[in-house]
Amino acid sequence: MLRFPLRALLTTLLCCFLLACGTTRLVDTWKSPEFNRDNLHNVLVVAATSNTTTRVIFESSFAAEMQKHGIKAFPSFQAIGDQAPTKEAVLEFVKQSKVDHVVAVKLGYIDLEVDQVPESVMTYYTGPYYAPNLGGYWGAWGGNTVTMTRESYIDTQTNVFLSTAVYDAKTEGLAWGGRSKSFDVNAVSQVASELASQMMRQMKH
């Protein structure tokens, strides 16, 4: 297993964000005893990245998914601009708004799993169903066997691990935290939506 540096996220996500075949799941979570999902009303979503494109796509998709669950969530780029979000900028906005919680998401690390798939040999029986026409069907009872060989090849899978933290805007304390793993990431928007959905479902328990 190979580990990529933090900045590799931008290249991995931006080069293929128009595609969508990733699957995201939470691998572990933590919740403050005082926190309840019903406490979420006005939520600011912050993606901790200096890349404007990635941030806009991720925050917008994450906030949109939370809105489906009845929560008034909005992306931080709409509140504090498209510059890289800083602690000072976020706290200053929170003080002047009605935000009750801040959801902050940042990259943990990226793994590239590389596996060698061995050669395989398969034998198929070609009976009457393979006849080119109806007339040929009647003479095809005997059938034939065909052997097909698939050569060995290298299979790769990119896994992105994200850390998500929900902070109480009033106390600035951690209310909920979780780590997620996204398999074969190909879309920033999909990862954001899946992560938000997973988070909301987990909070119900």
Structural features, described:
The protein has 205 residues and is of the alpha+beta class. The chain contains six helices and nine strands. The protein has helices at 8-14, 52-68, 76-80, 87-95, 134-137, 188-203, and strands at 2-4, 23-31, 42-47, 72-75, 101-117, 120-126, 144-150, 153-168, 174-183. The strands form two sheets. Strands 1, 2, 3, 4, 5, 8 and 9 form a seven-stranded mixed sheet that branches. A two-stranded antiparallel ribbon has the order 6-7. α2 links the parallel β3 and β4. The longest helix is centred in the first third of the chain and has 17 residues, at 52-68. Mean pLDDT is 78; it is low at 1-21 and 125-142.
Highest-level CATH class of the largest domain: Alpha Beta
- N→C terminal distance: 34 Å
Q: How many domains comprise the coordinates?
A: 2
Instruction: Give the integer mean of the pLDDT values.
Output: 78
- Using the coordinates shown, work out and report the CATH topology of the largest domain: Rossmann fold
Please name the fourth-level CATH homologous superfamily of the largest domain: Anticodon-binding domain
Number of strands: 9
Unreliable runs = 1-21, 125-142
Order of helices and strands: EHEEHEHHEEHEEEH
The CATH architecture of the largest domain can be given as: 3-Layer(aba) Sandwich
Shape: elongated
**Class inferred from helices and paired strands:** alpha+beta
Strand content: 35-45%
Gyration radius, rounded: 24 Å
Major sheet details: 7 strands, mixed
- Helix tally? 6
